[in-house]
């Protein structure tokens, strides 16, 4: 398979690195706004023929279409901030090639009632075009990272193999990572973190559909496995809530996404908002016009480069509540990544590496013809087993906890550690 | 007297407003980088002849000298951020006219030991030039606002009339102001607040001279009068510490400046620093180069415009500890400004209005020949009584508390209110 990777940031670099030795990959074109950045990654990889570089503006649709033609590309892998999704998605359509991204097109809050009603939802732009993609015979997998991505595959697996009835699915994410010298480090794309945390979080309920709440709502304590322990998680706007109800049923009544941000980080985000620094629209500063969020994203310590200073583990996963064989059941399917291991294996910090491996597995499944289709889909539209079977090989094995037995054991052990 | 006001921001507007009906003022030229801003203030004042407007870049020394000549100016009043002090101060010298500012030229931290040693101190640039100013027969009063400014006048008054021996002088400042809908409002110039709060605070001690500490050091509870109550104050870099030891002796052993910032505000400032947003040097964002602090200062809610939403009082003052007639004595000389009164009287919020009235009184004293001299001085170099006598007339009366009697009474009353 020939891949055009648009955007060679932290996650882009990890995607290239994880694909490097795989036989399903014929070529990956590393295309970035800054050619030097693409060159830097190319040098780390070594194989200049398989990993060629190109300068590209992700707002330039025709430029991307030309690159697809130049290299006879099979799939565009979008490694950019989601604000650029429209053009990259449309370029893939225009060029008639497959497409994957790790975050869907952005939402727009309801103009009158932003904390109750949805307006433009995450991915609306993309799902509205599914018929066009079908007609053209090409495939888009949207939300193909770890969350959304792996978490959606887990939801599908639970639905297919673990439950007869599903009441609720909640993505739960947190970490115990610390960065020496930093009290409020961004662990992932600064631009995207501000976007998803300050937007009204979205929830899905049967009968009610999608609706929104105040940011940071419905705080709860969730205990994460492998020694991470209890984390306070809050509602955050995330793609899984938009994807899961499209493909999973079994009586499903509620879907949420909650993330363990921590009080200090929430305070920092609220302060950014109060200072107007979260804004994406340009403001006039002296004689220049500039987007305050772009300034924050450029000025703050780059999360992709904090890796060597980070210590700890991060956990992404899917909690499912329902019934099996007439009995109540709750499970948490998860993947825990240790930062130092990720640094050693991939030269990337844990959250970046964990985001990068699922699209690489998915590209392999597409290359081998195991995942296939026409149209625009979330990852839970495909068979979960081939994906989960490959996780260990890619050094990101999954785990599963039965909440009514193992989870209770875990809580007891946490108590013992405390004493 | 003919005044050239460079910079018609919040404080500049209040200076113009407070000078409007005064007979000592013949003309005030409102000069700003943005001519429309000067025009806006001119319209509020009504008298277009006495308050003419000019466009000026405060980095353009020759342009300012030309304005002094054009209008036959007696005094340049500097209403800009202190980063622009050098040029405006030099323009006054070049034009041979008097000069006043409300904050002194900036410090530079010690390159190796910033939290112990001073390097370039506040006002060094200006005081190094005092002989030149003397020779030319012109006067600069630096630090002429409320703090520095009024607080220094209070120190001089205490030294002349209240104490035989002085052990310590500490400027203490705080408020109980709240702004509806804001948890961390800047009460004063955003640029300057970041500068003074994140720079290493400076302390003066006899024998040791000036030295620095970690930001936010030596937290203490200080009780402020007129119902404001207890405030947690911390060391902040401020001009009074540089000025007072130059002019006041009586055995003085220590000078500090402590400001009641509040935990939430300190957290916000620390976060700005961690995100690199406090920086003044330009960084590359996309294709533009921009100073992150300029973006924060432009993006955050303008403190000069928050007035209508503010409720509460602000207190600026000078605490002096020493001996009188052989007995230990402590006093706090202060000025309390109520926001709603300031809004009613001057259309400016309390902190802005309180900063503006002292330079207006000082201009009157210079115009009437009561304060005079040649060279570069702080406000405590002049007789305190004529200044303090005018405070009531300008609607900012001072108060004084004897700490060993009235202060203790105040604490008892606070306790009663609590119960």
UniProtKB/TrEMBL annotation, chains A, B:
Any Pfam family matching the protein: Sacchrp_dh_NADP
InterPro entries reported for this sequence: NAD(P)-bd_dom_sf, Sacchrp_dh-like_C, Sacchrp_dh_NADP-bd
Organism domain of life: Bacteria
UniProt-recorded name of the protein: Saccharopine dehydrogenase, NADP-dependent
Organism name: Anaerovirgula multivorans
Domain Saccharopine dehydrogenase-like C-terminal, chain residue ranges per copy: 145-394
Domain Saccharopine dehydrogenase NADP binding per the UniProt entry, residue ranges: 3-141
């Amino acid at each position: 398979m020939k891949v055009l990777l648009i955007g060679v940031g932290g996650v882009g670099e990890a995607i290239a690195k994880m694909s490097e030795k795989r036989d399903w990959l014929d070529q990956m074109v590393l295309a970035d706004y800054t050619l030097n950045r693409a060159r830097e990654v190319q040098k780390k990889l070594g194989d200049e023929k398989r990993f060629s570089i190109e300068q590209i503006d992700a707002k330039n649709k025709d430029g991307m279409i030309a690159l697809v033609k130049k290299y006879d590309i099979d799939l565009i892998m979008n490694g950019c901030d989601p604000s650029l999704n429209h053009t990259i998605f449309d370029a893939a359509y225009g060029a008639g090639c497959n497409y994957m991204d790790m975050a869907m097109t952005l939402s727009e809050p309801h103009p009158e009632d932003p904390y109750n009603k949805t307006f433009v939802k995450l991915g609306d732009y993309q799902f509205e075009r599914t018929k066009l993609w079908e007609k053209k015979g090409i495939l888009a997998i949207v939300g193909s990272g770890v969350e959304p991505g792996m978490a959606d595959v887990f939801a599908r697996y639970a639905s297919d193999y673990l439950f007869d009835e599903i009441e609720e699915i909640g993505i739960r994410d947190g970490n115990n990572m610390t960065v020496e010298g930093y009290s409020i480090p961004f662990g992932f794309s600064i631009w995207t973190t501000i976007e998803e945390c300050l937007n009204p979080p979205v929830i899905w309920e049967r009968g009610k559909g999608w609706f929104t709440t105040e940011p940071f709502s419905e705080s709860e304590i969730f205990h994460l496995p492998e020694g991470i322990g209890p984390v306070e998680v809050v509602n955050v706007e995330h793609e899984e809530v938009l994807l899961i109800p499209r493909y999973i049923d079994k009586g499903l009544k509620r879907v949420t996404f909650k993330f363990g941000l921590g009080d200090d980080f929430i305070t920092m985000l609220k302060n950014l908002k109060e200072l107007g620094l979260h804004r994406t629209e340009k403001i006039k500063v002296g004689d220049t016009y500039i987007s305050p969020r772009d300034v924050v994203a450029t000025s703050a310590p780059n999360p992709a480069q904090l890796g060597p200073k980070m210590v700890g583990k991060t956990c992404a996963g899917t909690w499912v509540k329902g019934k099996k064989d007439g009995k109540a059941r709750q499970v948490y399917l998860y993947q825990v990544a240790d930062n130092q291991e990720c640094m050693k294996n991939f030269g990337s910090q844990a959250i970046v590496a964990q985001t990068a491996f699922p699209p690489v597995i998915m590209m392999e499944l597409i290359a081998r013809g195991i995942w296939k289709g026409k149209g625009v889909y979330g990852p839970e539209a495909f068979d979960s087993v081939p994906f989960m079977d490959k996780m260990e090989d890619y050094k990101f094995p999954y785990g599963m906890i039965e909440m009514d037995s193992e989870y209770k054991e875990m809580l007891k052990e946490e108590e013992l550690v405390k004493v």
